[in-house]
Amino acid sequence: MSAKVVEKKYLFPFILITSCFALWGFANDVTNPMVKAFSKILMMSNFQGSLVQFAFYGGYFFMAFPAALFIRRFNYKSGILVGLGLYATGAFLFIPASMLQVFGVFLISYFILTCGLSFLETTANPYILSMGSEKTATRRLNFAQAFNPIGSLIGMFTAQSLILGRLNPAEKAQRAALNLEELKAITSSDLNIIRTPYVAIALVILVVLSLVAFSNMPTKDQGEHKIHIFQTLNKLIQNRKYVHGVVAQFFYVAAQIMCWTFIIHYGTELFTSSRYGMSVQKAEVLSQKYNIAAMVIFCVSRFVFTYLLKYIKAGKLLMVLAAVGGILTLNVMFSPGLIGLLSLVGISGCMSLMFPTIYGIALGGLRNDDAKIGAAGLIMAILGGSVMPPLQGAIIDLGKVGFLSGVRASFILTVLCFVVISHFGYNTYRVYQKSH
Asked: Which band of pLDDT confidence, cut at 50, 70 and 90, is reported for residue 398?
C-alpha cells in the first residue's frame, strides 16, 4: 500500500499551513509591479525602484537563520505565529510610510514584512515535509506550494485593478514640471492607493494568526532545547547535494523575480513602440495582464508537474524544465515583437515546479533539527531575488547593449540562472540519484 501524501491527523494543520503559502504568494506578486510604480511616483531610476526587491528579499535572507534557531528552540507553531505577526506589522507600516512620502520608510516596511515571510517559509516548508512519509515529502510540498501561485494571482489582480489602473497617469517628466503642491497631492494620492491592499492583507493575516493560535498543530517533533549549531552546520556543508541545492535555489529565485518583475518593463517597451503606439499607462496595464497570464500558467503547471512526479524522477524533470526555460529566455532576448513577450510568459510554466522540487531534493534525507537549519539555508538563498533584479535594473538603465535594448539584454542574467538550475537537476538525476 502506497504512503498517503497527507495523513488524516495532519489534515487540518496541513490546510491551515497551506493557506500561509497563498499569503506569501500574495505579498510577492502584489509587490513585483511596485518597482515600476515607485519609480514613476517618486521619479526614480529603474535601479532605485528595484531597491524594493532588495529590501523585500533582503528580509528573507536576514531572518531565515534566526527563524531556524527559533523553531529549533521552540516549535513549528511558534514560528508560524511570529511570522504572521511580523508580516502584519510590516503591512500596517504602510500607513505611516504613505503619510511621510519617504521611500526609505517603505523599504523598512517591506523589510519587516519579509522578515515575517522568512519566518513563515523557514517554518512552513519543513513542517509540510514532516507531515507524513518521507517517500511522499516532495509531492506533499509541491502540492502545498501549488496554492502559493493562487495567492500570487490574487496579488497580481490586486496590483492591476486596485493599484496600477488607479494611479495618476502623469509620467516622470510631467510630474517634474508640476509645482510642489501639485506634486505632493498627486504623490500622496498614489501612495495611498498603494498602501490600501497592504493594510487589507494585514487584517486577513490577523484572522489566520488567531486560527493558528487556537488550533492544535501536531508535529513529529517539538524542537530541541539544546542547540549544537556548529555540528549541524558542519554536517550540512559537507553534504554536496544540500550545498548545490542552496546555490540552485539562489539562482531559481533570481530567475523568477527577474521574469515577473521586468515583464512589465518588457511589455511596456514593446507596446509603446511605433508598431503599437500605446501610451505608457495603457502599455503598463496591458503588460500586467500578460504577467497575470504567466501566473495562471505557473499555477496550472504546478499541479500538472506535481502529478508527473509520480512517474518521472524529480531531478530529471527539473533538468528538462530548466533547459527549456533557458531556451525560452534566449527567445525573449532575440525574437522580435510579441513572440519574445509570449516566450517570457511561457517561462513561468517551466519555473512552476522548481522551488519546491529544489527544496525537497536538497533536504532529502535530513532529519529533524538538521532539516530545520537546512531549511534556513534554502530560505536565505531567496537572497537571489534581492541581488539579481537590481543588476538587471542597472542593465535596463543602460538603454542599449550592442544591438539589443537594455530590457532585452538584461535577460542574459536569467539564462545564466537556468544553466545553474539545469546542472543541479542533472547532478540530482545522475550523481545524487542514490540519495534521492
From this structure: confident
User: How many other C-beta atoms lie within 10 A of the C-beta of residue 277?
Assistant: 10
How far is residue 259's CA from residue 417's CA, in Å, rounded to a whole number? 11
Q: Are 198 and 89 in contact (CB under 8 A)?
A: no
Our count of domains for the chain comes to 1
Cα–Cα dist 232/280, whole Å: 52
**Which backbone phi and psi does 405 adopt, to 5 degrees?**
-70, 160
Residue 222, in any domain of the structure:
no
Looking up residue 47, the CATH number of its domain turns out to be 1.20.1250.20
Residue 92 lies in a domain: yes
What is the pLDDT of the chain when averaged over all its residues?
83
Residue 226 covered by a domain: no
**Residue 333 one-letter amino acid:** M
- The number of beta carbons lying within 10 Å of the beta carbon of residue 363 is 27
Q: Binning pLDDT at 50, 70 and 90, where does residue 223 land?
A: very low
Per-residue H/E/C for 101-141? CCHHHHHHHHHHHHHHHHHHHHHHHHHHHHCCCHHHHHHHH
Which residue segment(s) compose the domain that 97 sits in? 9-217+231-435
Q: Do residues 253 and 385 make contact, with C-beta atoms less than 8 angstroms apart?
A: yes
CA torsion through residues 110, 53, 59, 24, sign: positive
Q: Which residue has the higher pLDDT, 321 or 136?
A: 321
pLDDT tens digits, 256-285: 888 887 788 888 888 888 778 888 778 877
Place of cell 487556537: 214
- 342: buried, middle or exposed (CB in 10 Å: 19+, 13-18, 0-12)? middle
User: Which tens digit of pLDDT belongs to each residue from 185-214?
Assistant: 888 888 888 888 899 999 999 999 999 888
Q: Has residue 2 been placed in a domain? A: no
pTM of the model: 0.73
Question: What does the pLDDT read at residue 267?
Answer: 86
